[in-house]
Write a structure and sequence with these properties.
- The chain crosses the membrane at residues 256-277, 289-309, 329-356.
- Keywords: Membrane, Transmembrane, Transmembrane helix.
- 73% of the residues lie in helices and 1% in strands.
- It is mostly helical and 358 residues long.
- The chain folds into 3 domains: 6-152, no CATH class; 162-223, no CATH class; 235-355, no CATH class.
- The protein has a two-stranded antiparallel ribbon.
Length: 358
């Protein structure tokens, strides 16, 4: 009985002999396999257990000498034959299920285009099947696909190699390389045959383009003189300003938040001191000590943050540099506050009062 034709879901072409790929458009067809029987159905298992129990009972009767040897032999042969048939049936169903699973996995791999893995699964299925799934025919079909794929890859590599050689030859002359590059950019999406024709035309016309370019360059060089222009002072100032802006502007945009944050922290300490000024104004040492502690704490916090960022997060090196700059600006204020609190004896603090809002 001949197998029914399989219609392609892409082009509706009727494919005979149930292939895996459409004979017309090459689309992978849906897998059509007979579902295998379950290897261990309940009824089959019960019958196997029944025969095994009957053999054990028969052996027990023989040991007790309750059965005649002439009766024992035919009964034992019957049960052993039935048990062997059951075991062979179970093994056959397991084999069929294994082949079915291998073919299903191979078809799934074929959807991904992995023909090498498909071939390995089909070869395993061929070693187990007995002709019910026509695995040999599928292997031949996959081998044909592999050969076609290898031929296509070889043609593509040869075409790419030829194109590279033409481009290398054209690049030996300046105008020829430019002409060929422009043509390749304009015809990037064209089919291979059209590209070959255009490359051949480029090779044939390249010499004329080079000659025309050389003649034109000599003509222009003979009637033009090179003039060295000296930039004016205003132009030099504009160029210097534009370069400075290109350096400073990104730095400010990325790091202005750190400067603002540092200003807010220091300003917060100043506001705290001013708020309690009436209570601490009578004790000037306490007032100056509070200013010193606030500035020292802010400086230490900024330095610790910069060190932690530089040590743990190398990508924040720019931000850590900003914090170190802020620390460098705060250090003179810390020394000024230390002088005001008389922490450094023997030094007058008169000029230093200009640094703090006393």
């Amino acid at each position: 009985m001949s197998e029914p034709a399989v219609s392609c879901p892409n082009c509706a072409h009727p494919n005979a002999a149930n292939p895996w790929w459409c004979e017309n458009c090459g689309t992978l067809l849906p897998l059509r396999l007979p579902t295998p029987l379950p290897p261990d159905p309940p009824l089959l298992s019960e019958r196997t257990q029944l025969y095994q129990r009957a053999l054990r009972d028969l052996e027990s009767l023989k040991r007790d000498q309750k059965v005649d040897p002439q009766t024992y032999d035919p009964i034992r042969s019957f049960y052993q034959q039935q048990l062997a048939e059951m075991e062979a049936m179970v093994a056959e169903r397991r084999r069929t299920k294994s082949v079915f699973q291998l073919l299903t996995d191979a078809h799934r791999a074929a959807q991904d285009g992995n023909l090498e893995f498909v071939m390995s699964l089909l070869q395993r299925a061929a070693s187990e099947e007995q002709g019910e799934y026509h695995v040999a025919r599928v292997i031949a079909e996959v081998a044909q696909k592999q050969d076609a794929k290898r031929v296509e890859q070889a043609e593509q590599e040869a075409h790419e190699q030829a194109a590279r050689e033409r481009m290398a030859r054209a690049a030996e002359s300046p105008m020829g390389g430019i002409t060929l590059t422009n043509q390749l950019d304009e015809n990037e999406g064209v089919e291979s045959e059209a590209l070959k024709v255009e490359l051949a035309n480029a090779d044939s016309d390249r010499e004329e383009v080079i000659v025309a370019a050389l003649v034109e360059s000599k003509h222009v060089a003979s009637f033009t003189e090179t003039v060295d222009e000296t930039p004016s002072p205003i132009q030099r100032f504009v160029e210097a300003t534009s370069q400075w802006s290109s350096i400073v502007k990104p730095f400010l945009l990325d790091n202005v938040g750190w400067f603002v944050g540092a200003f807010l922290v220091v300003a917060g300490f100043v506001v705290l001191i001013v708020t309690f000024w009436s209570n601490i104004e009578q004790n000037r040492i306490l007032m100056h000590s509070l200013a010193f502690v606030s500035l020292a704490f802010a400086t230490a916090a900024f330095f610790a943050s910069a060190y932690f960022m530089r040590l743990k997060y190398p990508q924040l090196e720019s931000s850590s540099n900003v914090l170190l700059t802020i620390v460098a600006l705060l250090i003179p204020l810390v020394f000024a506050a230390a002088l005001l609190t008389s922490l450094i004896p023997g030094v007058t603090a008169g000029p230093v009062l200009l640094f703090l809002p006393v």
